[in-house]
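Hi there,

I know you've been waiting on this one. I reran it after we fixed the sequence typo, so this is the corrected version. Both the input and the resulting structure follow.
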Amino acid sequence: MSGGGIILITAAGGAFGGMLQQTGISAKIADMTKDYQMALIPLAFLIAAVVRTAQGSATVALITASGILSGMAGNANLAFHPLYLGLAIGCGSKLVPWMNDAGFWIICKLSNLTEQEALKTISPLLVVMGLTGLVVILIAAQVFPLV
């Protein structure tokens, strides 16, 4: 029963990501950021973070953000390797785990933490992980563009 729910949520996230990709939003974002491509990395991070916060699933956040930005990875002449966009999406999907996240409850219950203790410890630590990752990715994309 619980596995079916996870599969359903992940499939819905994949469908949503595919739908967004078909709308041409990738081309619009690429056009808006053509003069400053380094803005794509924080944008990828932000899209994943917003979806994760609103929906609660890191997997759905990854799939949705990837669907939105996938057109740019192959079509745009990025000043850095598209891998950095994927890493930024991964770091953004770490941000803001709270009570609508299954992983939050697993950590909370297996650690014998109350909800308040979990919110005070797990959430801030994952925010720090995500933001630190973003800073490292921005620096690495400048120093080692891999193109």
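Quick highlight: Residues 115-143 form the longest helix (29 residues).

Best,
R. S.
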